[in-house]
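Anyone? Bumping this.
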Amino acid sequence: MDVTIADIERAQTRIKSHTHRTPLMTSRLINQLVGCELIFKAENLQKIGAFKARGACNALFSMDRTKLNRGVITHSSGNHGAALAWAAQLRQTQCTVVMPNNAPRAKKDAVANYAAEIVFCEPTMASREASVAALIAARGSVLVHPYDNNQIIAGQGTAALETLEQLDRPVDMLITPVGGGGLLSGSAIAIKESKNASDMLVLGAEPDAADDAWRGFKNGTRVTISNPKTIADGLRGTVGVRNFSIITQHVDDILLTSEERIIEAMRLLWTRLKMIIEPSAAVPLAAIMDQPEQFFGKRVAIILSGGNLDLDKLPW
Amino acid sequence: MDVTIADIERAQTRIKSHTHRTPLMTSRLINQLVGCELIFKAENLQKIGAFKARGACNALFSMDRTKLNRGVITHSSGNHGAALAWAAQLRQTQCTVVMPNNAPRAKKDAVANYAAEIVFCEPTMASREASVAALIAARGSVLVHPYDNNQIIAGQGTAALETLEQLDRPVDMLITPVGGGGLLSGSAIAIKESKNASDMLVLGAEPDAADDAWRGFKNGTRVTISNPKTIADGLRGTVGVRNFSIITQHVDDILLTSEERIIEAMRLLWTRLKMIIEPSAAVPLAAIMDQPEQFFGKRVAIILSGGNLDLDKLPW
């Protein structure tokens, strides 16, 4: 049961009244600096401050009441946890979030604010999954995986679908950050299966320090990593099985970039767009800044994935 | 020759193609915290990152070529300087900006980026005015005062006019920060002389530490201050003569607030709106947070005046 553009369109209808239609932003100065025309989809202004609201909302609004009544559970470095907690409040069900103990405070607070139960684990995928499995065995809660889940993928895909609707004229490519791959895989289906944009390129961008999607993409075999050290806390997860399959099928390339460049791009976006974005959201621009010659004269849409971070721990 | 709403409407037509129609933003969580409904006009997303682009653009696009050819000059703590430098580039004329030596680096850089000449002075109104007078005597440049100027007042008034157009239903009041009073006086004329909003209240908000507008308003006589110590660097100037006259005639009240509250409000806006705003822009929300009972259940529009500040010197 693969996700199709029809699933993404249904997700869009399902979540429309609960989520924001976030604006597209541009900066003449950033365009001058990089030599291409960038259009930023401001998902930092989305509900809970990240695109993750789309997937969680779609998952819980397509779940029947019997399942909902068992309560929902997930593991998340932060934004999916907050999104599921938020959506669970809308659907009046109980929510548990397993979080790595090194998640940013702002993300822990957000999950707590939506009245979810937080269970901390070690910052590895193995620890996350073991904690979730134990809780499911004990309680019977329903897992809503942060990315390896068809309803989540369809929900995240609505950000790209909406971007297509909002653009006044076509772009050459769309770039999204890639962590678990929910956003990238959903975006790829939304673009490649659309009537009008199927010749658009879809690219992922990933930190050097958490390059599992890139390595898997280049080798054709999914790679797992454990506890990667990157400032882009939203991209520390390993790309999911479903996500990897969609990415190898539909995505044109994956770009890598350094920690220093991510910080530089983040600061540039803060300064020029006057918007708070989290490090993960800066990764696509960072990748362009690393090799601008590849993008000269192109028109590029970028999804700014989120805006949740600790204002007391800025990287400059 | 008083400024009228017709001047503001003409300014709107004049500047429309050069400036942004900035969006209105809301936050359910901030509304819950303060107990009223706040609508923020995001002038931090305006050209040069502040509403000042409106006034400078109006002033230079209503100036004839003979005058423009003499070059323009101003004194400014930052945003008006950047705005005049930007507008001077559009009008292809030379621009000099006298800046206090304690202006934020980001604001100095902005003026320099628009190719204006910067002349530094001491951070007092006397020093600012003396430096400008000496340069005018030597060069014959045309002064474009940062606020005590009819075209500037009319230009700044377009932010309130545009807010009225964008609101889906009326608000009870509009609050703006007050420094020199350009924004507040222009806003007051735009609201009080409008057909549909003349019963709306117009309030100014000012730091305790730079309370010249408040003291003048309460006493009926304009007060000058020198080098006030407030984090709200955009509000350190003394309210202008024309501005004071308009404020006493049209403004309903001026509110005061503390430095601590300004920082708290600024951080709240960063966290919840995901937007970079400078300290001056947080002053109206800070004033509401000081006495929320006065605003319970009200619908309040606030102009977020700008978003230019040093990211290396955040107050937390």
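Late reply, but here is one note on the structure posted above: Chain A has two domains: 5-50+156-304, 53-143.
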